[in-house]
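pasting input
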Amino acid sequence: MDDATQADVQKRLAYIEGHLRGVSKMVEEGQYCVDVLKQTYAVRRAIEKMEAKMLSGHLHHCVVDGIERGDTGVLDELSELYELANR
Amino acid sequence: MDDATQADVQKRLAYIEGHLRGVSKMVEEGQYCVDVLKQTYAVRRAIEKMEAKMLSGHLHHCVVDGIERGDTGVLDELSELYELANR
Amino acid sequence: MDDATQADVQKRLAYIEGHLRGVSKMVEEGQYCVDVLKQTYAVRRAIEKMEAKMLSGHLHHCVVDGIERGDTGVLDELSELYELANR
Amino acid sequence: MDDATQADVQKRLAYIEGHLRGVSKMVEEGQYCVDVLKQTYAVRRAIEKMEAKMLSGHLHHCVVDGIERGDTGVLDELSELYELANR
């Protein structure tokens, strides 16, 4: 991972971990399940945005380097990632 | 949230927080982005499974109670949750 | 399905089928894959909106009736649908 | 789109269109909403599999060609596709 992406991802991870601790607190306090669910959806969306940043860094660095080296394995990895991302 | 669901959700949340700390460590160590992404996908799937448990508890308790009280607001909440879950 | 939902769903289905025929035409004409993919994403989103309408009708009719009859099977079906919707 | 991908996508599209006509028939006949929803989920999954095939062909052809030409626009397109695919 390039330095800019790594720094951005670490900041996002710290935020997501804080958000998840907030969810834990809501559950402990017995808050309404619908309100908890709305927060876990928001956590998932934050993870997806972080993934988009990582993927963009990956494309512009590892994938370009791989193709320039003639290594098409990076393309099969991308196909696999795409399918995994949608489960 | 009923007690059994709450206990189950708390156990899952603890696991997910641990998993996310593992992801943070991978990023710090500069591990390969594709491997990090596979882990964040797994975190999202674990969150979705936890949501399914919460939703099931919600349906069998709050929704049944709501409908028995003649409160159809719980149904509109469910529709909203469904749309939010898929973004 | 109640009549209003059925009419709405049929209108949406006709639109989606037309959209999909448009995608077929794009593929036949050899249009750029990225442009085709953007259209298939739009088709999936249209299907999801139609599903949201069906689900809402289902909640307000079959689920309410089921609970009033004391049939909690409708709740397990909802849990199952939620998990299937997210795969 | 390369010829093999195009042929595969056309076959899949024909199948998906048939599946969707089956859904229309179910709605017309007034079949149970839960059964209709399970079929529309299956249609979406079939579309996603077709997208995976298109994306794979796109990666191995257009993306490789683009990078070899020094055109990084193909990478931004991929990032955009990834975000659109997850909405």
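fyi Chain A has three helices and no strands.
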